[in-house]
Specification:
This protein is an alpha+beta fold and about 550 residues long. It contains twelve helices and 30 strands. The protein has a seven-stranded parallel sheet, with helices on both faces. A six-stranded antiparallel sheet has the order 3-1-10-9-5-7, with no helix packed on it. The protein is globular, with a radius of gyration of 24 Å.
Length: about 550
């Protein structure tokens, strides 16, 4: 089994066989399977734990697995007598054709053997035969870019690119690290100075350092499940306009979360999750073992609604799926322009050298990441995605700066999202710009940042943070433009799910006409206004009330 290649969007004819609990002589635990082997058509299947007790006793259970290629949707719980819980199984590593065996341990001692028969190769997003990745040094505090790396974008259609590359290497004492299509990564002692020199070369479109990106949330670890950002910004009224039958008859709206990684088996996300990709490590496992940011963002967009668990996502009751794309290292601290640009293009269904084609291209990209300043490689990638008919939403940044919209939100084709609090005031951290160069386009609820952070998501009844999903079936609170951006992405997904024949421009136009902009609000801070979900879905607006 080749390491580093993981679960694809569609796996053909996988089967799971589980031994029933009665064979294991368990008095109240029954693992039910169909008489025939259970067919897994999307890399996942289900089995059921039932409490068969005939009295009022409860069944507490937890699950472990000894198979490193198997993932489990829910690892512990409690079932009343006569009740049941469904558990979803899925593959988390690349498997070739063959039979694979592992075990589930229930209640710490009861072993349930599992056999998975793979009828066709499982191919992940990374094409390991052609892919090479330079080692990206871990982020160091205070650095703006990867040390000793300059990115060079050649002009289109150069048949002599290799000779030009060799000439540049000789004249500027550069060492080639990697080439992908029209882009090269070169080693240099001074990336900023070298980028300035190379940008003057006639055969080079642009050159720049390989900038570090950052997630844009302000953390608070406490959990308090009051979702003020839904009720005060029109979601209940918007949901009333969702035609569930119509949703099921149409293909899904796909939202790519380009972030630190997502817990793809979270109990509140699993049903709305596609197979993703890790662009930092160049494999098909988009889960971060430590950083919660991407999981939190995903929950704001599409945590499952009406499942009696956790939180409700903005688009969690529509036919909306999350495509999780990891661009950070496992710590959630190191990400670069080059990696993010690859993820943006791949998410939009465009060719990226070294990666298999994306079987589920996104209509919407969510980028709750960024850095101060401009970034030409991200601008170009976003322009390519927009030309492919994709909407790109990006966070304006958390420095509270005027004249300071972060990249990639300052890309011409990106929709820059700022943050407001529960009173519709600009969040103190939310960047804006009154120079007319690039201001925020829309604002949405992202909470606020207080000195001496409150111990809960609310303080004396006033909400300050956004509660959403955290890894390992947890829920917690964050604030930031990182949280406002997925709110807008979720509303856009709702609009598109109800109007599947619309273009990206039509959806964007609906969003821009579905805002609240009071006369005393500065447009440089609010853009076209506060997004109102109810108005966007055609309901009477109660936004901000």
């Amino acid at each position: 089994m080749m390491p580093g290649r993981y679960l694809p969007a569609l796996i053909s004819f996988l089967f799971v066989t589980l031994l029933t609990a009665c064979e294991l002589q368990l008095p109240v635990l029954n693992v039910e399977v169909a008489k025939n082997p259970l067919s897994i058509t999307s890399g996942e299947g289900t089995f059921t734990i039932r409490n068969t007790a005939d009295n009022n006793s409860n069944l507490k259970w937890f699950i472990e697995t000894t198979a490193d290629w198997l993932r489990v949707s829910q690892r512990e719980g409690e079932i009343l007598a006569g009740g049941l819980t469904q558990i979803r199984l899925g593959l988390k590593a690349n498997l070739g054709v063959g039979s694979y065996e592992g075990n589930l341990t229930v209640n710490g001692q009861d072993v349930l053997p599992i056999t998975i028969n793979v009828k066709a190769d499982v191919i992940g997003c990374a094409n390991l035969q052609t892919l090479s990745r330079p080692i990206t040094p871990a982020y160091q505090e205070g650095l703006e870019y990867v040390p000793n790396q300059v990115l060079i974008r050649y002009r289109e259609g150069l048949s002599t690119q290799a000779s030009i590359q060799a000439d540049l290497s000789k004249r500027y004492d550069l060492t080639l690290i990697e080439t992908r299509g029209q882009m090269s990564v070169m080693h240099t002692d001074d990336p900023v100075m070298m980028a300035q020199k190379l940008s003057q070369e006639p055969n080079i479109l642009y050159a720049q350092p390989n900038y570090y990106l950052h997630t844009l949330a302000n953390p608070n670890d406490s959990l308090y499940s009051e979702q003020w950002h839904l009720s005060q910004f029109g979601l209940p009224q918007a949901w009333d306009k969702i035609d569930v039958l119509q949703q099921r008859s149409q293909e899904s709206v796909v939202v790519a979360v380009i972030d630190s990684g997502v817990d793809i088996v979270h109990e509140d996300l699993l049903d709305n999750m596609l197979a993703g990709c890790d662009f930092f490590d160049s494999d098909s496992d988009p889960k971060s073992p430590t950083d919660p940011h991407g999981t939190h963002v995903s929950g704001i967009i599409a945590a499952t609604t009406n499942n009696a668990k956790g939180v409700a996502g903005v688009a969690g009751n529509a036919n909306v799926m999350i495509l999780p794309l990891k661009i950070f290292d496992d710590s959630g601290r190191t990400a670069t322009s080059e990696v993010a640009a690859n993820a943006i293009r791949w998410a939009a269904g465009l060719f990226v050298e070294g990666f298999n084609s994306n079987p589920t291209p996104a209509q919407i990209l969510n980028l709750s990441v960024g850095r101060p300043g401009d970034d030409e490689i991200l601008n170009e990638a976003i322009a390519d995605a927009a030309a492919a008919g994709v909407l790109v939403f990006a966070a304006s940044g958390n420095y509270g700066k005027n004249n300071g919209i972060f990249s990639p939100a300052n890309a011409p084709e990106a929709i820059a999202v700022g943050s407001v609090d529960s009173d519709l005031g600009r969040s103190s951290f939310s960047n804006y710009d009154n120079t007319g160069t690039k201001t925020v386009d829309l604002v949405a609820p992202g909470g606020t940042l207080l000195s001496g952070k409150p111990s809960r998501c609310t303080n004396t009844g006033q909400p300050f943070y956004i509660v959403s999903t955290f890894p390992n079936n947890n829920y917690a609170c964050l604030s930031g433009t990182s949280m406002a951006t997925p709110f807008v992405s979720g509303v856009a997904a709702l609009v598109w799910s109800q109007n599947r024949t619309w273009t990206a421009d039509q959806v964007k136009d609906r969003l821009y006409r579905s805002t609240r902009l009071d006369s005393n609000w500065d447009a440089s801070e609010y853009g076209k206004g506060v997004i109102c979900a109810d108005k966007a879905l055609g309901a009477d607006s109660l936004c901000g009330q």
